[in-house]
Amino acid sequence: DSTSAYIMRSDGRIFEVLNYMKDTLNVSHFNTPFDEDNNIESLAFNPKTRNLITVSKDKGLNEKRFKGLYEIPLDTKVQKENPVVQIDMNAEAFADFQKKKEQKTFNPSDLAIHPKTGDYYIVDGKKPKLLILNPNGSIKALHELNTFHFAQPEGITFSPDGKLYIANEAASGVATLMEVTLDEQ
User: Fold this and answer.
1) Which of 2, 76, 78, 71 is nearest to 43 (CA)?
2) Closest CA to 42 of 67, 78, 73, 76
């Protein structure tokens, strides 16, 4: 429903705001299996499945080696137990970024779904990177982002026609919103 908004809190609680353009807000909430140790910063809407999708920034739900993308159907508001995609922290693409604690290899700060391809685009704000996954979860590309332009990428979205935008926190400078063009788009 285009008149509803969903806001994810870092401990996994999701707030639903019905008819958010009205003067009086109708707000309710529901919980996910995540907690503050997972540090959730991302929430996206998948238009193909009409479900919300999220991924933890820090600790994964099951194994330290994987971070899963989880769907939350809006009709039940109950997160699916199994991830739709698992990101393997030991994948070859992450070889140059390996950390002693596997879960620190890649820290998703936000995700978006390409409106035409269905690919998942996930940014890491700690060590600026952009991970692109096929809808089936295979890694298409991992781009290390230039810290001059992407000091701390914390938000990512697409326009309906597929233009990619990445938002950066101010860090020690000015917050920015960058339109990004990639060869594989």
Assistant:
1) 71
2) 67
Using the Cα atoms of residue 61, residue 63, residue 67 and residue 68 in order, give the sign of their dihedral.
Answer: negative
Are 87 and 103 spatial neighbours (Cβ–Cβ below 8 Å)?
A: no
Read off the tokens for 92. Answer: 């070859």
Got the DSSP string for the chain? Answer: -TT-EEEE-TTS-EEEEETTTSSS-EEEEE--S--TTT-B---EEETTTTEEEE-BSSS-SS-TTEEEEEEEETTT----SS-SEEEETTSGGGGGG--SSGGGS--EEEEEE-TTT--EEEEETTTTEEEEE-TTS-EEEEEEPPTTT-SSEEEEEE-TT--EEEEE--TTS--EEEEE--TT-
- Band (pLDDT 50/70/90 cuts) for residue 65 is confident
What does the alpha-carbon distance between residue 131 and residue 144 come to, in Å, rounded to a whole number? 9
Confidence of residue 75 (pLDDT cuts 50, 70, 90): very high
CA angle 68, 137, 4 (to 5 degrees): 65
In this structure, of 36-45, 97-106, 143-152, 158-167, the range with the lowest mean pLDDT score is: 97-106
Quick: pLDDT tens for 20-64. 999 999 999 999 999 999 999 999 999 899 999 999 998 888 777
Q: How far is CA 136 from the centre of its chain?
A: 16
